[in-house]
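SAMPLE LOG
Freezer: B-3
Tube label: C17
Construct: single chain, 369 aa
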Amino acid sequence: MIGANGDVAFTAQLANDAGGSSIDTSNDNSLWIGTQDSVLGTELRLAIQENDPAPGTDAGVVFGNMNNSLTQLIAGDNGTIMIETVVKGTGVTGANDRGLWLVDPDDSVTFLTREGFQFSILWSWSFVESVANGPFVALYAREQASGNDGIWRWSPVSGFELVALRLNPAPSAFPDCTYASFGRPVINRQGQIAFDANLTQEVVGASCPSTVFRWSGAGEPQAVVSSGDIVPNFPVGTEFGAFGLAGNNVDPKINDAGDIAFLNNVLIPGTAQLFARSSLWVAKSNGDLALAMVQNQLLPGSSTELLTSPGINRFALGSRGIVTLQATTDTFGEDLILSGVPTTNYIFTALDDFGSNGLKVIARVGEPE
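STRUCTURE (predicted):
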């Protein structure tokens, strides 16, 4: 894993050098960090070794095997490393052997949480760090006390703050609704969180659509777009389809400006049926909605080739509003990469005729480098 400042973090298995005997199967796994220095080059240092005491845990609890699929690493912009890994030792079982820690640039290790205590299951998390705002973590987990899944934000100042919890009331824009399920949350360097959620009725007849939310650190999450919302500048009656577990189950992305990119199968009325077209959108922080791509649109720069899919789970959103995505064409079925700033000035009038929308093809299978 490499951070924005060039720092590198990786796990490795250790072995004795000639004549050595201090390394055995109980302590041969480790976390290493490489720091970039303009004078010295890359400085490589040992941050954690298996059998080191695990901060935030009881005496006799130590770090376990870090060189496996259960360990995840993310490097921040200012040299902090987020690690999810396992512990072993006194009182450790399969129900409480996973936890989250931050390794600071000075190699001090900060405990965030561990399964079996505040949270019974750590489903997923995302981590960012900026020089100005420090580290933030968005956590999707199951609360030990209630047994309900929810989303929390962690920061050094506030610790864990609850964003949304299953069975809790949904935001006031959805009266008589509660949260039913969540997608994986994502977080930006301002501490804003984006997530999708399915809502359920508390009162018969209540409107409880699946929704993409933005939470900015105060108050309740704000709805960005919901299933059933009218899609602007598409044929009359076109609606956004379901999000999250009820839809394509693809997580949104959020950039540092608070813009949110999301996939959705829009429902376009047809003469004989309701056509579901996969599409990629960016909801701007100012409320504008920009279209990056829709299934069966013309390939930018072509009058014949159509884009058949936005490449589910394969898109990114940059801080300047640039979207990069993978797609395929109907003509040859080739994979290609498109990138650009989605346009808000789109008009979609026919299923197979759309034209340019701000993106360009930057690479495709079979082209020379």
